[in-house]
Amino acid sequence: MNTTAAHGAANNVEQPKPRSRFGRSKFGGSPAALIAGSIVAGLAAAFAAALILWAIVRPEESTGLYLGVFTLCLFPVAAAASWAALVDRDTIVGATPNPEESIESTWYDNATQNTFHIILFAIGALGVASVFTDVKLSLGAFAISSYVFILVSFGGSYYLNKRRDS
User: Is the pLDDT confidence value at 43 over 90?
Assistant: First the structure.
């Protein structure tokens, strides 16, 4: 009896990946290695962004202080983005297997479509209103109010989709 063939077939069965709270890297290793790699990559990305900002602004004051403050401010977001890029989703405890097929994803897709149509209507209404009025508005105030309007439109649409399906 050929036991090596039977043993080889048993080894071809894919074992479930070990799961942890922070997951494991796509490239292998422990959760601690993933966290350390995310911190190093986040620090490098934050410092690179601070250098780019410094090259654009060229402040007269202390370069070290400028780079240090900007690096520390950007580090948390850069480290989280690095972790998200490096982690294997299948190794996180409690992660949804197929997030693109979830009901929340459907609500999000519907909300983005509704928000786009609301924006089209609002731009048309603003265009008609601009013919009849002569309002002076700064670009900053317009940008902020537009952002708030889009955010409220999206949030309301998402909430209504969620409420309708629940």
Answer: yes
Convert the pLDDT of each residue in 14-42 to its tens digit: 666 677 777 777 788 888 888 999 999 99
- Give CA–CA dist 117/110, Å, rounded: 11
Element containing residue 117 per DSSP (H, E): helix 103-132
Q: Which residues pair with 87 in a beta bridge?
A: 25
Question: How would you label 47-79 residue by residue, b for 16+ Cβ within 10 Å and e otherwise?
Answer: bebbeeeeeeeeeeeeeeebbeebbeebbeebb
Indicate the residue type of 59: P
Q: In angstroms, rounded to a whole number, what is the distance separating the alpha carbons of residues 158 and 112?
A: 8
Which residues, listed in sequence order, are joined to residue 89 by a DSSP beta bridge? none
